[in-house]
Design a protein that fits this description.
The chain is an alpha/beta fold. It is built from six helices and 13 strands. Strands 1, 2, 3, 4, 11, 12 and 13 form a seven-stranded mixed sheet that branches. A six-stranded mixed sheet has the order 5-6-7-8-10-9, with helices on one face.
Length: about 260
């Protein structure tokens, strides 16, 4: 049995610290073969930098995915092509820099991973995630033994719809972006693992990783404020998947939470 851990949105220094401190032990304890992590909020809650990406890779992450905050850090547009283990969303315009997928390997088993942005309530210019997934699956199928699709989206309906659309065609469809782990981890009828949101890796005494007071105040009066990253109740959250390498089929998916 092969095991894959998909870590949800890493938020700021607290999220990075728990990955640095706990991931090596988790890999050993659960005999994890692959670790994929969404790092789009790793730099002070918005975006990522080359130095942060390298630190996460050094901590034991095999592949880093990104989302709608992909370009928030000014220098990242120039840095993204220097790190081969990082990919940006596949349904961004083709002119955008960076890789649209990654392939990682362990014990002779190859896993392809790519991210699609949802289009409901997200303002980024992006291709239809369903049609993009079709194209990416056709591209990756000859090169891989399993395919992991991340849908970085706001609407649970869009995430669920993509899961059903891809059931039986990919190994897993995993949601990110909303930062709250959902209680719907399941293997769909045709064998694809699904979870609407794998959760946030960062401070849970917060509003989506940010200090509560300024966020609440913004809801009350609508005035602009800075939203610093919170610091308390830090957790690592992700989906742990067991894959039968002979069938390239998921045997089990569960939420993994480390406090």
């Amino acid at each position: 049995m092969l095991k894959l851990l998909f870590i949800g949105d890493i938020v700021g220094r607290p999220g990075r610290d728990i990955v640095n401190e706990r991931l090596a032990g988790l890999r050993a304890e659960h005999e994890i073969d692959f670790v994929i992590a969404n790092g789009e909020n790793a730099a002070a809650g918005s975006g990522i930098t080359a130095a942060i990406a390298q630190s996460l890779l050094g901590a034991g992450v095999d592949a880093i995915t990104l989302g709608d905050h992909v370009w928030d850090q000014r220098e990242w547009v120039h840095e993204i092509t220097r790190i081969e283990q990082v990919c940006r969303p596949a349904n961004l315009p083709a002119a955008c820099p960076g890789w649209d997928h990654l392939i990682i390997e362990a014990r002779g088993f190859r896993v392809g991973v790519f991210t699609v942005l949802g289009r409901q309530y997200l303002a980024m210019k992006s291709e239809c995630p369903f049609l993009c997934a079709d194209r990416m699956i056709e591209q990756l199928r000859p090169q891989t033994d399993a395919i992991i699709v991340e849908i970085h989206a706001e609407a649970t309906s869009e995430k669920q719809a993509l899961g059903w659309y891809l059931d039986g065609r990919v190994t897993a469809v995993l949601g990110t972006h909303t930062h709250v782990p959902t209680a719907d981890a399941q293997v769909l009828p045709k064998g694809t693992a699904f979870m609407c949101d794998v959760g946030m890796t960062g401070p849970y005494a917060s509003v989506l990783g940010r200090e509560t007071e300024p966020v609440v105040a913004r809801f009350l009066d609508g005035m602009p404020r800075r939203f610093p990253v919170a610091t308390d109740d830090v957790r690592l959250s992700g989906a742990l998947i067991n894959i039968d390498p002979g069938m390239a089929r998921v045997e089990k998916i569960e939420l993994l939470t480390v406090r």
